[in-house]
Specification:
The chain is α/β, with parallel strands linked by helices and 205 residues long. The protein has one domain (2-204): Rossmann fold (3-Layer(aba) Sandwich). It has seven helices and seven strands; from the N terminus they run βαβαααβαβββαβα. It has helices at residues 16-30, 50-60, 68-72, 75-85, 103-112, 156-165, 185-204, and strands at residues 2-7, 34-39, 89-95, 119-122, 125-128, 134-141, 169-176. The strands form two sheets. A five-stranded parallel sheet has the order 2-1-3-6-7, sandwiched between helices. It has a two-stranded antiparallel ribbon with strand order 4-5. Helix 1 runs parallel beside helix 7 (185-204) and helix 4 (75-85) crosses helix 5. The N and C termini lie close together (11 Å). Bound molecules: flavin mononucleotide. Residues 9, 11, 15-18, 95-99, 140-143, 178-179 line the site of flavin mononucleotide (FMN). Flavin mononucleotide binds next to helix 1 and strand 6.
Length: 205
């Protein structure tokens, strides 16, 4: 089994999310699973700008064979997609920004959610081509979004939709409320670490 950890934790060493992602990496390595890291703070995904979107559409929807500049501008999106498709387990780790994923995480999903590679059209609907693979979303947030605040949560829930659309069996671990309840930070992170081990343990069997 091979794993990929995709992280966007721009506060580096100070990032609580990064601590949780490192915990996931350590746990997987302790189980002799090869772990590759994609640090999106250093390797920023390309965006679906008009030219790039046009190339993607012509290739992946219209079946055109691209060359030269048209193909070159899909290179980074294709590399990120190939990297994801090469592993059985993906961990996506990031903090909540403005009730959602940081834009760089969304750009990574826009890069890898490619028709014909990770999902496809099928008999009047959609098929996730990553069926049988596992995904764990790790997020932290300043506030917590339980009960009547749940309608504000578009961060982990959005990743769950993206990964589910591609066919992944997805679990989520959230370290929520760490700014709102600073005295509980240690407790919140310890609980998240335990949940990460439980989720990954269940995935790897
Ligand atoms: C730009 C920005 C936007 C944020 N937006 C939210 C938000 O909408 N809701 C929330 O609960 N926390 C929000 N936070 C707080 C972070 O999610 C929280 O502090 C998180 O734990 C930071 O993770 P880190 O320690 O890994 O950097 C925001 C933080 C930043 C920097």
């Amino acid at each position: 089994m091979k794993a990929l950890i995709v992280g966007y934790c721009p506060r580096g060493e100070r990032s609580r999310t990064r601590q949780l992602a490192d915990h996931a990496a350590g746990f997987l390595r302790s189980k002799k699973i090869a772990v590759e890291l994609l640090d999106l703070a250093k390797d920023i995904p390309d965006l679906l700008t008009p030219d790039r979107l046009s190339s993607y559409y012509r290739r992946s929807y219209m079946g055109e064979k691209l060359a030269g500049k048209d193909l070159a501008q899909l290179k980074k999106m294709d590399q990120m997609t190939d990297q994801l498709m090469a592993v059985d387990l993906v961990v996506v780790a990031y903090p909540m920004y403005n009730f959602s994923q940081p834009a760089i995480i969304k750009a990574w999903f826009d890069s890898v959610m490619q028709k014909g590679k990770t999902w496809d059209l099928a008999q009047g609907g959609y098929a996730g081509l990553m069926k049988g693979r596992k995904a764990l979303v790790i997020t932290t947030s300043g506030g917590s979004y339980d009960g009547e605040m749940a309608f504000l949560e578009h961060s982990a829930s959005l990743s769950k939709v993206h990964l589910g659309f591609m066919g992944y069996d997805t679990k989520v671990v959230t370290g929520a409320g760490i700014n709102r309840y600073p005295e509980k930070e240690g407790e919140i992170l310890a609980k998240a670490r335990a949940e990460i081990q439980e989720a990954l343990g269940a995935f790897i069997g």
